[in-house]
Amino acid sequence: xxxxxxxxxxxxxxxxxxxxxxxxxxxxxxxxxxxxxxxxxxxxxxxxxxxxxxxxxxxxxxxxxxxxxxxxxxxxxxxxxxxxxxxxxxxxxxxxxxxxxxxxxxxxxxxxxxxxxxxxxxxxxxxxxxxxxxxxxxxxxxxxxxxxxxxxxxxxxxxxxxxxxxxxxxxxxxxxxxxxxxxxxxxxxxxxxxxxxxxxxxxxxxxxxxxxxxxxxxxxxxxxxxxxxxxxxxxxxxxxxxxxxxxxxxxxxxxxxxxxxxxxxxxxxxxxxxxxxxxxxxxxxxxxxxxxxxxxxxxxxxxxxxxxxxxxxxxxxxxxxxxxxxxxxxxxxxxxxxxxxxxxxxxxxxxxxxxxxxxxxxxxxxxxxxxxxxxxxxxxxxxxxxxxxxxxxxxxxxxxxxxxxxxxxxxxxxxxxxxxxxxxxxxxxxxxxxxxxxxxxxxxxxxxxxxxxxxxxxxxxxxxxxxxxxxxxxxxxxxxxxxxxxxxxxxxxxxxxxxxxxxxxxxxxxxxxxxxxxxxxxxxxxxxxxxxxxxxxxxxxxxxxxxxxxxxxxxxxxxxxxxxxxxxxxxxxxxxxxxxxxxxxxxxxxxxxxxxxxxxxxxxxxxxxxxxxxxxxxxxxxxxxxxxxxxxxxxxxxxxxxxxxxxxxxxxxxxx
Length: 656
What we know:
Elements: H1 3-30, H2 36-61, E1 78-84, H3 89-100, E2 107-112, H4 117-125, E3 129-131, H5 145-154, E4 161-166, E5 170-171, E6 188-192, E7 196-197, H6 213-223, E8 234-237, H7 238-274, H8 280-301, H9 306-348, H10 359-367, H11 373-385, H12 408-417, E9 421-424, E10 430-432, H13 438-458, H14 469-481, H15 484-501, H16 511-532, H17 538-546, H18 548-563, H19 589-610, H20 616-641
Parallel strand pairs: 1-2, 1-4, 2-3, 6-9, 7-10
Antiparallel strand pairs: 4-8, 5-10, 6-8
Helix pairs in contact: 1-2, 1-16, 2-6, 2-14, 2-15, 7-8, 7-11, 8-9, 9-11, 13-18, 15-18, 15-19, 15-20, 17-20, 19-20
């Protein structure tokens, strides 16, 4: 164990002890129950922050700094995929030309979901292949977005390994030489490298570089075999993806059959209740359907192939339907015979027509169930429900996950569930373009957060039995961090309420409070400093709080999409500098209102202290809290005014 890792573990243990001690004391001793409406949310927010800190500490516990990679295999085949939808052609071709220049033998492909003839002509003139989608492709909204684009290309190419690049991520020539060696491990499915952006100034007002994530956090996850795919700058083993696609296809079909057969019993029970006392034929038919459902479930449990089970089941259902049709025909013939008899009776008694027919007979005919329609429809529904044919899908096998607007995390989590390994190679081997204004940055961050929340709602890692507990927690840690928007609301409200109206959410600001809180905060920040090892972390901490409206919107919109079937718009992050339109204040109104409320509270608090309505400790602590919050939110002012990076020298475009 390296001295740095030993120090990290010591600090992690101290952080956990101090944090748990503080939060337990808060719950048991210091909640101001008379102001429960703010006191309880505050202690809940503090508990959230403690869990976040513990998950971060667990991530850092096995921080893995990989050394030199092994030499790459000599005869591997590689396809380089450059995904694009509507990015400028010159930008895509810049990346494609750099991909062509990669030294390791490979084939370069542009995956154009925009289906642009001009791009194809330019690319093919330079010997670069272009793959478009057909069948499920629509120009306004390609099906399954980037994941569908990649899945389509997987079936059109043959390379053993795939280097996936976004349209703006220009690779270095040695990218494959530096990453393929890790695949000498036969269980290695993916190697992720950092995303680094060339159009970002040193002070990075939009927080694009993410040095803590593309560094210690991914290294920590790597130590737990949970480093995950970030959508670009990654090499993936084709075998792993295809195995994943086939396994998921088979698993989803089996789940669908089980669900249909379970539902069928309830449908049959309702159908029997609708039958009349004379519908013996339909009743026997439904009993036969029930028997066949039970037999199908027993066959599946014995391991008989689903295709065989469902094929035989559907053939038996055809027999049942023929029985019902024959019964209907017999009933119809009997009714026709009865009507003919009545006509003969009417003919025998001229002038009376049908008026003299037995009223009981007419009532019987009016109330009669002419056809066991409910039973027929039930059988039809069952046949449809157990139909596992997915021929309507343009591509039934989907190796990359399509359950969210971002395909990366879910795909990697599924790979880990199958027992594959991943690696994080901490070396910048491609440089891209970051958002150059606040609207573009917010579009990007919202999409990332929405995708993460969709994965949480649809495939909660804590419930994935194939994952080890350490992997479950590593994925959950990333998802948990996106819930910070709700805690931020409480952290903003608490000091405002105290300074403005004197509402105290804790019992008292006494020695017990400070003895427990201050050491925890100090040690927690020390952990960040040691882990970062000189990498800047302040900007990330600022945006964790300052983008609280974005995180809340991501949660609510993803929840509505998953559980309420509401549409979730997908927006590709623009890769070109937008025209100057002035500061985007309208996009940060919640933050501006929060800043105004904080500033007003500080002024009111000073007045209240001056007239003796606030204690020195309470006033000073909450004023410092407000100042800290304002320092956090100050980045929003800079971000709204930021109009892109202007390098001092032309060569700055090629720096790494």
